[in-house]
Amino acid sequence: MKPYTHILFDLDGTITDPAEGITTCVRHALHCQGIEEENYQNLCRMIGPPLAEGFRDFYDMDEEHAWQAVRDFRELFARIGVEKNIPYPGMKEALLRLRDAGKVLCVATSKPEPFARAIADRFGLAECFDFVGGASLDDTRTKKAAVIEYVLASVGSPKPEQVLMVGDRRHDVEGAAAFGIDCVGVLYGYGSREELTAAGACFLAEQPADIADYVLGK
Transmembrane ranges (predicted)? Predict the structure, then answer.
């Protein structure tokens, strides 16, 4: 068994597939900015990175317009986004295996915390977690590293070697690395093998069961 006592999970692309909700809301936010985006793969690039960063990087928005797009996104997501998520097959079973082994499980997501909690509640996943943490609605906590720091402080500030991050994008790996924390990359989400390997993931999981197998030494 690996020495990890605390396992932090990204949400979008790791615990649930958010594609329908996020792409619908991104398309709406872009429309509000006068941008019509019909390329589905382009919309999917927005799954994972902090929203403002994605709008800046992929649609060349300045800071003011990027944050207005974030507000437009959130306004629609608050109404439709929670329902337009699908937990990945086998995820709850993997979480319960880790819980039964005594691991402290947390969500650490760049999605606003109220949305993350609503999604966990909606799909019966809240019972699996000791803490669900996310970005703040006032935008003072948006980067993955800041979310990880907040979550760790909320569960007793374990030592870095006791913590494992699990996520599907380089932002998860890099955010964890800022604190000397290992990160498992998942290949069933929205990051590629190349992206996760280049970022420094310590292990690549093909399916949720692989995460539990890795931690528990199966």
Answer: none
CA dist 72 → 14, 53, 76, 136, 197 (Å): 25, 15, 7, 16, 34
DSSP H helices, the chain, are: 19-32, 40-44, 51-59, 63-80, 91-100, 113-122, 144-154, 170-177, 193-199, 208-216
Going by C-alpha positions, the residue among 123, 140, 129 that lies closest to residue 105 is 129
Q: Do domains 6-17+86-216 and 19-80 have the same CATH topology?
A: no
CATH architecture of the domain with residue range 6-17+86-216 = 3-Layer(aba) Sandwich (3.40)
Q: In the predicted model, is pLDDT for residue 2 greater than 90?
A: no
The CATH fold assigned to 19-80 is DNA polymerase; domain 1 (1.10.150)
Domain edges within the chain: 6-17+86-216, 19-80
- pLDDT tens track for 80-133: 999 999 999 999 999 999 999 999 999 999 999 999 999 999 999 999 999 999
* 10 among known catalytic residues: yes
Out of 10, 12, 17, 182, pick the active-site residue: 10
- Distance from C-alpha of 15 to C-alpha of 175, rounded to nearest angstrom: 18
Count CB neighbours of 148 within 10 A: 23
Q: How far lies 54's CA from each of 50, 67, 111, 141, 178, in Å?
A: 6, 11, 13, 16, 21
- Which secondary-structure segment (H or E) carries 203? strand 203-205
